[in-house]
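> call design_seq(struct)
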């Protein structure tokens, strides 16, 4: 049995809901994009956990090649699935039938599976939707095993400079002296700006400018396992550093970091809304329930499983609280098993036990950034709309759609199609827009180079003031 999920794989959410909804959630998957970006992103914009402590053994390469007829059949099938199941009848303003005619000659001319897979990825990318995407057999296998390829360094644009935005602790990049805030001059011998322009052209446009940037910079340094990434960097003093870094297969399993900060405030950070995270967070909240304030750090959290998202949200409410509504092409909820079961039109967070008794009742700050996607955005918006938390940081991704089926295709690839859209419980659309923090905190080069977490500092100040006011 599979369960509803909401995630942005890029770059995968399950909610605790009514008993009927839970029965349905055990029958069908609803993926809210664990953003369709590469799983490892910069510390400041992507999943916050450096998965680099132990490289994984390489997996066997996929060797079966598709015939020309196989490619044409698969191309037609991918187009037909999108045409039939995409949640928006207008296809995001794209002339989808014209896409079929435009891409067919390119498929006919493809000389390899790799070229063909790139064409399929580009075709579904025409929808400008971070959740609708095609994965090659190798990408699908790595995702299934919660693996990704990383050189231990991540880059992003900050103040119009392409800079190092994260270095995995213990990685070859760290040992080579790569540090946050270094300017990236060249990537594999090409000027960094030229390489960014090339990748951005490949990516096209996505759900929002932030999603496009995440996809671009997430893909910028990608390569096969054990290949070498060569970077030309400029230190803050103007001196140059050239490094050659091996790309490794590394784990991308869910992780939870929960602790008391020196200020006495509670702090929880996690990278996915997928099992068994809800159970771990419940245990953490039990330990932190007497903290005068709590920071939930969702920077780089790409979403995950819908029921898991709702379970975690339920820990912060005293009663059942609606958090999301679905939007479909027909206006009717999706049906399964010949109409005997339907996806609920509204999802709710329910406290543990289904009645009352939120686990944590103190003031909450949720820290977000452009890497906060999908289910993580619904979670943030739910706490924000219900005045249960103050949102701090940068505008979230704006990548909030749902996938009912992850379709394995001939040759081993996978197609994910957005079949469901979402609004908040109050009807606010998040796709393309995201969650706007009440307390915006920009990312600056000065903070990056000083390794100063300005957003966390602001969240701590807000909670200390709230705790002081409550004690008056």
């Amino acid at each position: 049995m599979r369960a509803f999920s909401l995630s942005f794989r890029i770059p995968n959410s399950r909610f605790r809901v009514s008993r009927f909804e839970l029965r349905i959630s055990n029958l069908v998957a609803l993926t809210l994009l664990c953003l369709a970006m590469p799983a490892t992103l910069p510390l400041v914009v992507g999943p916050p956990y450096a998965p680099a402590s132990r490289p994984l053994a390489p997996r066997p390469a996929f060797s079966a090649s598709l015939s020309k007829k196989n490619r044409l059949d698969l191309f037609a099938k991918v187009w037909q699935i999108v045409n039939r199941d995409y949640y928006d009848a207008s296809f995001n303003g794209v002339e989808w039938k014209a896409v079929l005619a435009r891409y067919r000659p390119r498929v006919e001319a493809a000389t390899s599976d790799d070229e063909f897979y790139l064409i399929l990825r580009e075709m579904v990318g025409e929808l400008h939707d971070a959740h609708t995407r095609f994965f090659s057999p190798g990408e699908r296998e790595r995702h299934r095993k919660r693996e990704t390829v990383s050189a231990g360094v991540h880059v992003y644009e900050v103040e119009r400079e392409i800079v190092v935005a994260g270095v995995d602790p213990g990685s070859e990049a760290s040992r080579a002296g790569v540090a946050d805030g270094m300017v990236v001059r060249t990537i594999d011998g090409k000027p960094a700006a030229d390489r960014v322009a090339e990748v951005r052209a490949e990516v096209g446009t996505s759900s929002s400018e932030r999603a496009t940037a995440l996809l671009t910079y997430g893909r910028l340094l990608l390569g096969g396992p054990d290949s070498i990434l060569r970077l030309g960097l400029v230190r803050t003093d103007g001196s140059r550093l050239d490094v050659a870094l091996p790309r490794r297969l590394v784990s991308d399993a869910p992780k939870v970091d929960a602790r008391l900060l020196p200020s006495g405030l509670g702090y929880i950070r996690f990278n996915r809304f997928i099992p068994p995270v809800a159970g771990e967070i419940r245990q953490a909240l039990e330990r932190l329930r007497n903290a005068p304030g709590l920071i939930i750090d969702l920077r780089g959290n790409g979403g995950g499983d819908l029921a898991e998202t709702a379970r975690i949200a339920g820990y912060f409410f005293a009663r059942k609280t609606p958090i999301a509504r679905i939007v479909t092409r027909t206006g009717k909820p999706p049906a399964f098993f010949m109409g005997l079961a339907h996806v609920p039109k509204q999802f709710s967070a329910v406290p543990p036990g289904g009645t009352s008794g939120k686990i944590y009742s103190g003031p909450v700050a949720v820290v977000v950034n452009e890497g906060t996607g999908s289910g993580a955005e619904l979670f943030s918006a739910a706490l924000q709309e219900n005045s249960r938390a103050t949102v701090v940081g940068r505008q979230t991704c704006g990548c909030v759609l749902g996938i009912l089926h992850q379709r394995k295709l001939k040759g081993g690839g996978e197609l994910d199609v957005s079949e469901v859209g979402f609004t908040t419980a109050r009807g606010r659309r998040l796709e393309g827009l995201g969650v706007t923090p009440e307390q915006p905190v920009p990312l600056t080069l000065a903070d990056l180079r000083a390794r100063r977490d300005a957003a966390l500092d602001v969240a701590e100040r807000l909670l200390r003031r709230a705790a002081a006011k409550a004690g008056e």
